[in-house]
Amino acid sequence: MENNKGKMQEYWQRNVRILLTLLGLWFAVSYVFGILLVDQLNEIRLGGFKLGFWFAQQGSIYFFVLIIFIYVWLMNRLDREYDVHED
User: Fold this and answer.
1) CB 38 within 8 A of CB 53
2) Are 72 and 22 in contact, with CB atoms under 8 Å apart?
3) Which sign, positive or negative, has the C-alpha torsion 70, 71, 74, 76?
């Protein structure tokens, strides 16, 4: 029983670490790139648009959707590793 409890605690620690890492990346893309570094990024053009504008309007949304897929992939892998996956 104790061993299983420690294993589940390790599972949740890794789950939270994945979640915080991905949220940190999303924060960096949406807030840092879209707001704080917008002037520096606007020097670069992407498809005719200033890169800072693109991150603020589209990039953070695309990155968030990508993060969802990455989270699902990582959690499925973690669930299989700890044998808590759904059949």
Assistant:
1) yes
2) no
3) negative
The Cα–Cα gap between 20 and 53 comes to 26
> Locate tokens 């949740």: which residue?
12
Q: Note the pLDDT of residue 54.
A: 85
- Distance, CA of 41 to CA of 20 (rounded, Å): 26
Beta-bridge partner residues of 45: 50
Global confidence as pTM = 0.81
Tokens of 81: 């590793």
Cβ pair 38, 55 in contact under 8 A: yes
CB-neighbour burial class of residue 34 (10 A; exposed 0-12, middle 13-18, buried 19+): buried
